[in-house]
C-alpha cells in the first residue's frame, strides 16, 4: 500500500535533499540498517532534528527498519514485503 515519496524520479538511485523529503511529507520512513551509522542512530537523527518535526512520519513515529539484505534484490525481499505490509497496516494505511 505504500508509495515512495520520490517515485516520480527517473533514477532508481539518486541523491535527494532533505528539503525535498520534508516538502513531500512522508507518512512513513523506511530506514535501511546499513553502514557505520546504525538504524537506531538514523532514527534518533530524524526525531531529534527540529527540521523534521513537522513530517507526518516523525510526528506519528512511523518508522520501519529493514536489514540491508532485505532491502536489496534477493530472496529476503519476500520477508521485507511482509514487514512493510504489517507496518502499513499498523499505521492505518
Give a verbal description of the structure.
There is one protein chain. The chain is built from five helices and two strands. The chain has a single domain, classed as Nitrogenase molybdenum iron protein domain (Rossmann fold). The chain has a two-stranded parallel sheet. The chain is α+β, with helices and mostly antiparallel strands and 93 residues long.
Characteristics:
single chain; 93 residues; alpha+beta; Rossmann fold; two-stranded parallel sheet; 2 strands; globular
Helix content: 40-55%
Helix/sheet category = alpha+beta
Let me know the CATH homologous superfamily. Nitrogenase molybdenum iron protein domain
Query: Helix count, per DSSP?
Result: 5
Number of domains: 1
Assess the beta-strand content as a share of residues.
Answer: 5-15%
What is the 3D shape?
globular
CATH architecture type: 3-Layer(aba) Sandwich
Please outline the helices and strands.
Layout: H1 18-24, E1 29-33, H2 39-48, H3 56-59, E2 63-67, H4 68-71, H5 77-90
Parallel strand pairs: 1-2
Structure summarized in a few sentences:
The protein is α+β, with helices and mostly antiparallel strands and 93 residues long. 42% of the residues lie in helices and 11% in strands. A two-stranded parallel sheet has the order 1-2.
Amino acid at each position: 500500500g505504500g508509495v515512495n515519496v520520490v517515485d516520480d524520479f527517473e533514477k532508481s538511485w539518486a541523491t535527494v535533499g532533505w528539503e525535498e523529503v520534508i516538502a513531500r511529507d512522508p507518512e512513513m520512513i523506511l530506514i535501511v540498517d546499513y553502514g557505520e551509522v546504525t538504524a537506531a542512530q538514523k532514527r534518533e537523527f530524524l526525531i531529534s532534528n527540529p527540521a523534521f518535526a513537522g513530517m507526518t512520519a516523525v510526528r506519528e513515529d512511523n518508522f520501519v527498519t529493514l536489514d540491508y539484505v532485505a532491502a536489496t534484490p534477493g530472496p529476503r525481499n519476500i520477508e521485507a514485503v511482509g514487514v512493510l505490509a504489517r507496518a502499513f497496516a499498523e499505521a492505518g494505511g
